[in-house]
Amino acid sequence: MVFDYPALPREFKRQYLPREIGFGWDDLSGVFEELAKRPVGSVAELERWLLDEAELDAYIYEQRAVRYFNSTRQTDNPEYTKAYEEYTEFLEPRIKLAGFELLKKYTASPFRAQLAGPTYGLEDRRRQGAVSIFREENVDLEKEDSGLSQKYFRTTGAMTVTFRGQERTLQQMSKFFEEPDRAVREEAWRLSTQRALADSEPLDSIYTRMVALRDRIARNAGFDNYRDYIFVKKDRFDYTPEDCYEFHRGVEDAMVPLSREIDRARAKEMGVDVLRPWDLAVDPAGRPALRPFDEIGGLVSRAGRVLSRVDGELSSYFERMVELQLLDLDSRKGKAPGGYQEELSEARLPFIFMNATGKDVDVRTLLHESGHSFHTFLLRKAGVPFFNGGVNMPSEFAEVASMSMEMITGEHYEGNFYNKDDAKRSNWKEFVDNVKLFTWVATIDAFQHWVYTHPVHTRDERARAWVSTFNRFCGLESYEGLESSRAYRWQRQLHVFEVPFYYVEYAIALTGAIGIWSRYREDPKDAIEAYKGALSLGCARPLPELFEAAGVEWGFGTQVLRRIAEELRSAIREYAE
Ligand SMILES: [Zn+2]
Fold first, then answer.
1. Looking at the DSSP assignment, which residues form a beta bridge with residue 353?
2. How confident is the model over 83-112, as pLDDT tens digits?
3. Which of 133, 200, 270, 514 has the most crowded CB, counting CB atoms within 10 A?
4. Does residue 343 register a pLDDT over 80?
């Protein structure tokens, strides 16, 4: 695939920025200055000012995205790496500071109270929050924090083992956990875990430093702890830490028993008395891995067929991405691991990055990321650009768009990717994974609540807090003799390091996504209309209203989780037959 950025269609014309503008600080600072100095003497002038600022935001976001995209497509191209590093090291801190001046100008404007409509109300609340927590002295601390993230990635990225005569990364090793031969799985698991454990101390030190830094950032901004700070920073207006605790209790009540039922059935089917950590990813019936496609062309054409069964409009968006070469799907040497969808916010087009190798999970990933890209397309209908996706879209709803598409499309795998039995097998795994996701999100979230509300703690205390949290939500696998690997399992979850507290969003979104999928099974047309309607609202409504527009219940406490657990239980039973 070639990513021909200059050739992309520009359907949304700039009103404010010059047609030709560079991306150095010399180019940007003048624009920031003009906005900062421009007199704003009426509501109409304030609206114009906001639109112009939004154009600048979209330009910056798109340029950042292109640099990020290039640096992950070709990690071995030093020019791409340098361009992205220049952005994060040099430009971003300056943009943050200059952007703060604009925030202050906005919040000081007497006309902001006269901006009419719920969309402005939400944006106003967001900006008010951002201004209230911004501290200039935190910019350097945040830079140090992201430097530590880079160190985390360097440390974990350098972890390799030699297995069957070949040097492999830990990510590459995970495929051996799906091997039917139990001894092979155990050997691969032990080898990977020992390698990770060898660096547990440096990773522990990085994290200790991060927690101290983050605690200081929060205190500088006038908060008692980083947890309370991050709730404001992440615009979590629609739920509280107490709601998260209620979510943990709900998972314990409704999902943990289901997760353990699944494990009991797994142990029985595998014919083992006790499950071990290396028994959890393999097909319990010992069948070889599913092979939904052989080459990328097959993945794309089959995904296109599946989407055309779901909805004509959505499938036309996918075809558009294919035509504009906005999909980089194959796994190549030099390409960064993982998968994501990003938005080119001026062109208002999405692109998808992933590493497909012919596995079942690749199909889910592509259709998940396609759900995100539908958001970008549907948002084109929304008039006001600063409510546009990427920058401000709350993940609690963005992931509803993607996760529901992942499940809905599963209804059409039969005849496209799989025969009847294999389609069932793929869906069974999807829904089992959803149960496990709820329990894992609760684990990671509850652990972080503990860490940041107890910022002063020893390594041993942290390990103990982790183990008791882990045991509260875990399945039936036994860690006997593997206690130290369990004690440091959190170090493998990059979010804990890179994006603190960003995780519960997935579970909140999953509740909505399951709701949409279950509506789709009853009335596909109606469910898809509601899906499209809710996505085209962007982030112009509070989360409960976005959920309502999508036709699903807002909430992630015990009652909701109990109902969802029942739905998951019956889906898993149906697919297991
Ligand atoms: Zn996603």
1. 328, 340
2. 999 998 899 989 989 999 999 999 999 999
3. 514
4. yes
- Confidence class for position 123, pLDDT limits 50, 70, 90: confident
Separation CA 11–CA 7 (nearest Å): 12
Cα of 243 vs centre of ligand 1, distance in Å, is: 22
- Measuring CA to CA, how many Å separate 23 from each of 20, 30, 99, 576? 10, 12, 16, 54
Q: Is 126 exposed, middle or buried (0-12, 13-18, 19+ CB in 10 A)?
A: middle
What separation in Å is there between the alpha carbon of 399 and the centre of ligand 1?
Answer: 5
Distances (CA, A) of 269 to 175, 263, 272, 284: 21, 10, 8, 6
What is the CA(341)–ligand 1 centre distance, in A?
8
Q: Which 3 state secondary structure label does DSSP give 104?
A: helix
CB 259 within 8 A of CB 439: yes
What is the Cα gyration radius of the chain?
24
Tell me the two tokens of residue 341.
């969808």
Distance (angstroms) between ligand 1 centre and the Cα of 509 equals 10
163: enclosing H helix or E strand: strand 160-163
Residue 362 has pLDDT above 80, yes or no: yes
* Tokens 């979230």 belong to residue: 445
pTM of the model: 0.94
Enumerate the H helices of 296-419 as residue ranges: 296-310, 312-323, 360-378, 389-392, 395-410
How far apart CA 77 and CA 65 sit, in angstroms, is 17
- pLDDT class of 124 with cuts at 50, 70, 90: confident
Q: Which amino acid is present at 100?
A: F
Confidence band for 384, pLDDT divided at 50, 70 and 90: low
| C-beta separation of 228 from 153 below 8 A | no
Distance 400 CA to ligand 1 centre (A): 8
Q: How confident is the model over 250-302, as pLDDT tens digits? A: 999 999 999 999 999 999 999 999 999 999 999 999 998 899 999 999 999 99
574 forms beta bridges with none
What spacing in Å lies between the alpha carbon of 506 and ligand 1's midpoint? 8
Token pair for 484: 């130290």
Query: From ligand 1's centre to the CA of 364, what distance in Å?
Result: 11
389 and 379 Cβ atoms separated by less than 8 Å? yes
